[in-house]
């Protein structure tokens, strides 16, 4: 979900030589369709049974790739940058990629932390890590509680709400932009939510490239503002870091930070609320109890992880993976959701029943979500869920659980809406 400096030319001008091999097989499966929206776990199970731990798939426009399905194989790929690297200029399919390909925001190379490797990646990730370490988690929790209360106040008196648009998404974005030093009460926040959503999940008639350009322009203005007037925020700490990253580099890296803080965290919040409101195991303890909320947050990361697939890695040289011959330049999609529900790591099929922190929802290896970002996301999500349950203790779904609709996305796992009702309250 990154752009180059101009936002207009996504394809690498001079990709390095790579084998011209194609991973497509006659039995390659399109990585699209309603099945991924309605029952992705069943799809991954069937793919694993038919193809093993690595399945041949077709991306938009029948572009071939590999979907890595098993926990051991995803862990191996993400732990071996020498074999499966992030620089997408290695891709052996660039000659088949049109200029308006919808996945270009994910794979079009540019010099951001997402695509750097080796020492440069360590340098860039180090700047992000140190900037995030400056966030006081207690203060973040207090701020998230304030944001949550303000959002709930806006609909508490009505006795009904749609929590995706009125709560989860704006809360995650406001928390993210406040950490970065951006004014939270502005139309920019709503615009960022919309454009990040478009760049991730494009609906008919929407332009993901244009949406990404708008995101980039807004972050560029933020960096310029913080260069002139620094403060106690993530952006200012990145600008003042001894590594001396350029403004362009900081803009690119901040887009990754903001996008990761908003869309996945918002879906984590709503997926957890859905679990609490639909699963009888949590019915007795949903009124803000820390134990049950914590269990629900963890279980969601195993069973309904907000980022279910991630593109990707590119093979550095010919190799074998899960019994498949992977050619240099082949694209690998990381099946994080499939890996988290891999029966190899869940004896007796009790997926999620005793979940711990070994899930791959924040990926793994050098390119995993940089510490302490997962801890900050947990503060945001936990505060959001606990505050809602505390403020609206009798909240229930206003539709039947089976009528909830998941987003039509193979990449993100989240609901299109979460309508609820409750006893109207006034503060």
Automatic annotation (TrEMBL):
Entry's transmembrane regions: none
Gene Ontology MF terms: heme binding; iron ion binding; monooxygenase activity; oxidoreductase activity, acting on paired donors, with incorporation or reduction of molecular oxygen
Chain segments carrying region Disordered: 1-25
InterPro entries referenced in this protein's UniProt entry, alphabetically: Cyt_P450_B, Cyt_P450_sf
Protein family (similarity comment): Belongs to the cytochrome P450 family.
Record's protein name: Cytochrome P450
């Amino acid at each position: 979900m990154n752009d180059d400096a101009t936002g207009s030319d996504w394809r690498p001008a001079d990709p390095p030589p790579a084998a011209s091999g194609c991973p497509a097989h006659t039995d390659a499966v399109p990585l699209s369709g309603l099945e991924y929206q309605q029952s992705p776990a069943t799809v991954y199970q069937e793919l694993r049974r038919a193809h093993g731990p690595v399945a041949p798939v077709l991306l938009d426009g029948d572009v071939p790739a590999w979907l890595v399905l098993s926990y051991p194989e995803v862990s191996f790929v993400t732990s071996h940058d020498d074999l499966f690297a992030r620089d997408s200029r290695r891709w052996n399919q660039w000659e088949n990629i049109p200029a308006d390909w919808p996945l270009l925001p994910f794979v079009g190379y540019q010099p951001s932390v997402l695509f750097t490797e080796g020492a440069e990646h360590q340098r860039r990730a180090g700047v992000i890590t140190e900037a995030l370490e400056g966030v006081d988690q207690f203060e973040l929790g207090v701020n998230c509680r304030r944001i949550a209360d303000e959002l709930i106040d806006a609909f508490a008196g009505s006795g009904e709400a749609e929590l995706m648009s009125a709560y989860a998404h704006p809360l995650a974005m406001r928390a993210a932009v406040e950490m970065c030093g951006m004014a939270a009460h502005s139309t920019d926040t709503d615009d960022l939510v919309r454009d990040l959503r478009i760049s991730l999940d494009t609906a008919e008639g929407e332009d993901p490239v244009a949406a990404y350009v708008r995101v980039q322009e807004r972050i560029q203005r933020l960096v310029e503002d913080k260069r002139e007037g620094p403060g106690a925020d993530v952006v200012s700490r990145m600008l003042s870091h001894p590594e001396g990253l350029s403004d362009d580099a900081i803009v690119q890296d901040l887009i990754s930070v903001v996008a990761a803080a908003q869309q996945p965290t918002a879906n984590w919040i709503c997926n957890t609320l859905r679990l609490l409101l639909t699963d009888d195991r949590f019915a007795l303890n949903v009124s803000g109890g820390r134990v049950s909320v914590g269990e629900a947050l963890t279980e969601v990361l195993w069973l309904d992880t907000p980022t279910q697939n991630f593109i990707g890695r590119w093979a550095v040289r010919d190799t074998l993976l899960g019994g498949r011959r992977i050619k240099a330049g082949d694209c690998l999609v990381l099946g994080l959701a499939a890996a988290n529900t891999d029966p190899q790591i869940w004896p007796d099929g009790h997926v999620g029943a005793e979940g711990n922190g070994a899930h791959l929802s924040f990926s793994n290896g050098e390119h995993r979500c940089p510490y302490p970002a997962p801890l900050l996301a947990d503060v945001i999500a936990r505060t959001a869920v606990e505050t809602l349950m505390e403020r609206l203790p009798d909240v229930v779904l206003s539709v039947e659980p089976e009528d909830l609709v998941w987003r039509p996305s193979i990449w993100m796992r989240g609901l299109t809406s979460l309508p609820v009702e409750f006893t109207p309250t006034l503060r």
